[in-house]
Amino acid sequence: MEGTPVSVESVREVGPGTVALELETPAGFDAAPGQFVLLRAIPWDVAEDEAIDEDDVVMRHYTLSSPSVDETFEITVGIDPDGDLSPWLADLEGGETVHIDGPFGTITYERDEDVVAVAGGPGVGPAVSIAEAAEESGHNAVVIYQDDEPAHVDRLEALEDAGAAVVILDVDDDGGLADAIETHHADGQLYAFGFESFVTAVADALEDAGGDSDEALIENFG
């Protein structure tokens, strides 16, 4: 199996059907909030104690959800009960090994300006990491998050306590999303993370609010 082997330091539940994996940072790994890795694993290897077959490697991309990567870094995983990889990742206890490639991606936060991080569903991981990095660097942060079962609520509450503006919306509240973007789009560099329909709605709302979607940093999860 290709990629760099890293240890799974811990796995914790961070929301309904959502876990965060803390992974060992390998030597030379230098990533900024907004970037992602390719994770490789053989899910049945540990569970069944069978011989490793390279053909059974499962690969998925995950965006970093930690503001730094000094000794460890975090990825947030939504659990698909019928998925090939996420249920296995959620059941890990720490000490296992997975393989990663990366970091990848040109959408990064360099801790140099105020931010507006807009997240739909799994986009909350990078949005929270960017907002936390901004707060740590003395900049202002806004998080606009749309999901029917929010994750990382404790971190969002901590951001709000630190002075960030946090707006959490129901998944079908498109009017609320547009209003939040109209209210906050000029408060900093706008980042958006989520599936295609969500980031398209964000771009349209930004244009309607008088902003420029070409200036926004948008990551489409497909």
Automatic annotation (TrEMBL):
<dbReference type="InterPro" id="IPR008333">
    <property type="entry name" value="Cbr1-like_FAD-bd_dom"/>
</dbReference>
<dbReference type="InterPro" id="IPR050415">
    <property type="entry name" value="MRET"/>
</dbReference>
<dbReference type="InterPro" id="IPR017938">
    <property type="entry name" value="Riboflavin_synthase-like_b-brl"/>
</dbReference>
<feature type="domain" description="FAD-binding FR-type">
    <location>
        <begin position="1"/>
        <end position="110"/>
    </location>
</feature>
<dbReference type="InterPro" id="IPR017927">
    <property type="entry name" value="FAD-bd_FR_type"/>
</dbReference>
<dbReference type="GO" id="GO:0016491">
    <property type="term" value="F:oxidoreductase activity"/>
</dbReference>
<protein>
    <submittedName>
        <fullName>Oxidoreductase FAD-binding domain protein</fullName>
    </submittedName>
</protein>
<dbReference type="InterPro" id="IPR039261">
    <property type="entry name" value="FNR_nucleotide-bd"/>
</dbReference>
<dbReference type="Pfam" id="PF00970">
    <property type="entry name" value="FAD_binding_6"/>
</dbReference>
